[in-house]
UniProtKB/TrEMBL annotation:
Keywords from the UniProt entry: Membrane, Transmembrane, Transmembrane helix
Organism this protein belongs to: Tenacibaculum finnmarkense genomovar ulcerans
Superkingdom of the organism of origin: Bacteria
Transmembrane segments: 32-50
Protein name per its UniProtKB record: Uncharacterized protein
């Protein structure tokens, strides 16, 4: 029963996902945007990682 509802919900959400797929395809087809978005994600990850390590180092002081 739940599996059938999940399949129906997936079929109904395909129209909503089409915009996301178009944006992802546009980003993938433009190498400059792909490169910039990769750099932003990498810098964000490193920034979060440094914040976490600083919290671990200063824990208990």
């Amino acid at each position: 029963m739940f599996l059938l509802q999940a399949i129906e919900n997936t079929k109904n959400n395909t129209q909503n996902n089409s915009l996301g797929k178009e944006i992802a395809q546009w980003i993938f087809e433009n190498p400059i945007i792909l490169l910039v978005s990769g750099v932003v994600v990498s810098v964000g990850f490193v920034w979060i990682l440094t914040k976490v390590t600083k919290q671990i180092r200063t824990f208990g002081e």
